[in-house]
Amino acid sequence: MTGTLSEEDLETHFERTIARDQRIEPRDWVPEGYRKTMVRQIAQHAHSEIIGMQPEGAWITRAPSLRRKAILLAKVQDEAGHGLYLYSAAETLGADRADLTQKLIDGKQKYSSIFNYPTLSFADVGVIGWLVDGAAICNQVPLCRSSFGPYARAMIRICKEESFHQRQGYELLMTMMRGTPAQREMVQDAVNRWWWPSLMMFGPPDHDSPNTERSMAWKIKRHTNDELRQRFVDMSVPQAEALGVTLPDPDLKWNADRGHYDFGEIDWSELKRVISGDGPCNAERVERRRKAHEDGAWVREAAAAYAAKRRESA
Ligand SMILES: [Fe+2]
Ligand SMILES: [Fe+2]
């Protein structure tokens, strides 16, 4: 309860803030459903950034040159930073970071299904930058206008870094495509494996996306999954042509009436399988995260002891 305002007044104030396109800030009253949806979305996003360090992190020691290693290190470190901004944003809603991490490790909170696929060659680093970070940008640019202030502001900085991620990936692929036939084959093979999972990053189709309507009404989300997916396809086709790779979809063709590319049916059963824990690398990713968390326990204890000591002497 804030001052003498009734719950109804608070609700009206909240609805008006949303209607005026103003931001909801941490100290504002929000309906419980809004808070829960926001915490779930931000946590899932934060977990994706942290788990997303693994598939590419696996190639840091095997990068083909010092330059590629430096770029990849910087990129993977950026993802750690994204996770930290986002956990901080979730904390402004009263969530506890340790609790969120525990939920991830216990499989009670999800992360993006895309990170459950393996990285089989160095071309995957390029394709992840181009397609996975590219899809993330499509998703996240509209989130810079999300109604929750701390999330929207975190997204502005994250999007700037994501655009570097996408460009480093594309530049790497351009270099490989100018290389030997074997290198070009590696790129095509990576594109074949990542194209469809990248389309799945936008989530289930609109008719099967129960949270979309609510999130749109609260202006947490600004576009539907299918709208964003279409935008991504339209953006990627000319980029694939410039690169000289084929996107693995025989139904992909320009539709002049719609002013968009048509594309083939997505295998939604695969998405469901991977989300429910049965992707190629789910167990490995979570196990690795659990081990990193346990190995880091002494750091957290030392930091907490140091903070307590400082409080005492203050
Ligand atoms: Fe990121
Ligand atoms: Fe990224």
TrEMBL record:
One of its GO terms (cellular component) is cytosol. GO terms for biological process: phenylacetate catabolic process. InterPro entries: Aromatic_CoA_ox/epox, Ferritin-like, Ferritin-like_SF, PaaA, PaaA_PaaC. It comes from the Bacteria. It holds the Pfam family PaaA_PaaC. GO terms for molecular function: phenylacetyl-CoA 1,2-epoxidase activity. This is 1,2-phenylacetyl-CoA epoxidase subunit A.
